[in-house]
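Two records follow; treat each independently.
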Amino acid sequence: MNIKAIASASCVGLLLSMAGGQAVAGSNVPKMADKAKFSVMAFNIEQLPKSVPWWTPGTEYRQDRVNNAETVILNNDADVVVLDEAFTSEAEALTNTDKIKNKYPYQTKLVGVQCSGDEWDSYSGDCSRSLVVISGGVKILSKFKITEKHQLTFDDSSKNSWDYWANKGAGLVKLDVNGTSAWLAGTHLQADEKTPEEDRKIRVKQITQLRTWATQKSGGAPIVVAGDFNVPYYEIDHNDQSAPKSEVSEEFKEAEKELGCALFPQASYPTFEKKYTYDMVKNPRAKLRLDKENTLAKYKNVLDYVGCIKGDAAAPAFPDLEGGKILDDYSVPSGEKGELKIPSDHYPLISWVEL
């Protein structure tokens, strides 16, 4: 199953809806007094390259979708935002609007746009300068000052997938959280396409490389990690239109083992029960990607996470403060072809992090 081609964090007291192409929220994420606590949003905004329009129905509505994604970000007021699939010029403009820049004055460049130079403090991995290779689509926005920033492009990607033509990897930043240093990595792992078993093995290699690299850069400090992992939380029932089973997938367990740390959300986390970041049943935009054979009609799963990479010190905690949420409350904007104007085929999530 092609998760990226058909698709590719917890907040407090939020109700998200879309009306007339605009997202509104019942309340923002509350501020916390403890200087070592902050909130992180992971948001795959599905702004895919214009060179591959068949991946994203409604290319003429890119700007509408970016405007709606901006409203989602602003209304939910996370301290740090990790964007995935921010490939387009519209996505770049989104991160440079006055409202976004005022809220998030500290930003990285897109991962994989450059392979050397002064945009990052260091470059690692297999970064291609080919004119036919696109960026990695990952960008980090922060309210906190970024004191270090490092880029990784993965050594491994499937030659049978579109990921082979992208500099996918991770951005790693050191944040000054009100006087406390915090390390955070934003990433987007290999998608499933023509060879899902090979793609799964590549994701494991990417996670291993990410952990080794980030741990070295941080000097062994624990690291918060966020993004679209393309790792399903639930086992998939291929005999029932790819519906999720109740048991946790072996791939998810393997991903946590490789990270040496936890990924959130988890089904045992009460507020995340029966919520999904990619849902072809509930999300009208995701539903546009149904295949002709309808084998994906029931596909829904958790693919996006906020978690951690184990370091030498105590791992970050992810407190369930009044119930974090996957923001799965898109509704179709009013007007003609409203389903094409929904911000993304993914739902964002926000999670509190406590150091």
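The next record belongs to a different protein.
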Amino acid sequence: MPKFKIGDRVVVKNMTSIFHTRTQEFVRDQPGIVVDTRPDWVVPEDEAFDRLETGRTEPFYVVSFKQTDLWPRYTGFDIDTLETECAEGWLRALQKDD
């Protein structure tokens, strides 16, 4: 059962990964909003080693980030966003003190 739903505010964890990950460094520790969900899939760290049959699976989410949060010197519009997919294990709920 997915941990997050559309509209939930989340933060991408800043975890160390010595193997492949699709979680871009520029979204780590950044707040975002879940805008869509994806079905369970093999986590990228296992998929990279061709473990499609035996790898760990978890839900994926499309998360939207304000570009002004990602890049403080961003000169575009305040409403500009970037969307990317994140595996559930890379996300945590946004806390009031974040």
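Discussion point: The helical segments are 44-47, 67-70. How would you locate this feature using only the token line?
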